[in-house]
Amino acid sequence: MGVIVPDAVERYLATLNRSHGAVLDDIARAGAQRNLPLVDAEVGALLRVLATAVSATRILEIGTATGYSGIWLAGALPPGGSLFTLEMDQDRAREARENFTRAGLADRVNVIVGDAKLLLAKVSGPFDLIFQDGDKQLYTPMLDRLVSLLRPGGLLVTDNVLWDGEVVPGFLPKPVRNEKDTRAIAEYNQRVASHPELVTAVVPLRDGVSISVKRSG
Ligand SMILES: C[S@@+](CC[C@H](N)C(=O)[O-])C[C@H]1O[C@@H](n2cnc3c(N)ncnc32)[C@H](O)[C@@H]1O
Cα–Cα distance between 47 and 81 in angstroms, integer? Predict the structure, then answer.
């Protein structure tokens, strides 16, 4: 459970969104056993709603891990749609490919292995939705490139923007998370909030998710 939304409310939300399918449940269970920082089902459901709302046919994800959030995203794509997901860890990328196959989504997912900072120069847009869930210290350095890859009206969705509340100075008497990451996220939040091409709202769900729409004009 997170520290932002009270436990009882999180438990209630979980009861509303119970049936995710055996593959997602299995990946979540395996991820929890190995302490992998995967989104949870509530954020997964939000991603699927957002991808559906913009009728996404092309999605980019930074940080695949074992494919959990990618399955939520790719599940919103129509046949012929594409999710491009970037992961630097070869073993996780291999596992993700297996999971996309188990979920019946391999035909619309490209797992690209390498450093997203370098790969972004080679990726071509436009994308309808971009999910940023990679290295927190790269959030700000990647921001302008990601905005340039979005179509007008497209969404940039970023996970962990409240960082268990630690972006708020003094929220915890003794911060637990990496200080450099905390500073990087706080800087990113300021940049996104004042970005001239984006309109942004932060949803305090789980670890905090920001949702930005790229302006049309
Ligand atoms: C928070 S996890 C992603 C979780 C995944 N989105 C999910 O919820 O199922 C972040 C992932 O980003 C990967 N990563 C970190 N830095 C990266 C980089 N520079 N390029 C590509 N992947 C990176 C890590 O190996 C890790 O698997």
Answer: 16
CATH number of domain containing 98: 3.40.50.150
Establish if 2 belongs to a structural domain.
Answer: no
3-state helix, strand, coil in the chain (%, to 5): 45, 20, 35
Q: Each residue of 146-161: pLDDT tens digit?
A: 999 999 999 999 999 9
Neighbours of 51 (CB within 10 A): 25
| Residue 1 forms part of a structural domain | no
Task: Identify whether the C-beta of residue 163 lies closer than 8 Å to the C-beta of residue 208.
Answer: yes
pTM of the model: 0.97
Question: Residue 85 sits in which domain range?
Answer: 7-214
Place of tokens 């309109």: 199
What is the distance in A from the centroid of ligand 1 to the CA of 195? 24
Ligand 1 pocket (Cβ < 6 Å) reads 37-39, 63, 65, 68-69, 86-89, 92, 115-117, 133-135, 138
In a domain, 27, yes or no: yes
Q: Which of 134-143, 175-184, 194-203 has the lowest mean pLDDT?
A: 175-184
Residue 81 lies in a domain: yes
| pLDDT above 70 for 162 | yes
Strand locations in the chain, DSSP E?
58-62, 82-87, 109-113, 127-132, 150-159, 198-203, 209-214
As for how many domains the chain has, the answer is: 1
CB 49 within 8 Å of CB 119: no
